[in-house]
User: What shape does this take?
Amino acid sequence: MHTFILDKSVGTRDNVRKLVKRASDYHDLSAKECKQLVAAFDEEKEATHHRPPNLSVKTRNAECSNSFKAIIDEVEALKQRIGTEALVVLVHSTCDLNIEPKVHFTSSAVEQYLRTATRKHVMEFACKLEGYVISGDVERSGLSLTHKECVKKAKQTIRGGMQAGLLAITGCSEANFE
Assistant: This one.
């Protein structure tokens, strides 16, 4: 990245003198003052590490594109090594991203299957998928759950079934598992 400086006095002897004076001012400080200055600097430096990175829309779009390319490379490598076929669809799930849906097929047979099965053009299918994901129906159906969320949901379902069975057997609504 190029930095343009409008100050024409940059690099002159006067600036060198100022820099030397600042360095000598630092060296003239007592040991206690030096420690305080270094501690203040360390606090400032540490504070910047705890801030989340500033992710602009452009940065997130670039991250999506780069990740999509990496996934395609992996899928193509799997196809060559093992003989797998894949359909990769990238859509955004929130309205704050500004990317078009992306679709990749490892072979024309997969593309033809998608057209035959859905009776839609590939991009029409991707746009409809994107609309479904953004609408929030995915969360309600459980398709976007993480593994931990799926395990938690399964445990809750099992526990609910066991509690209902215990109630049916004992007839006591106060009965609990220990």
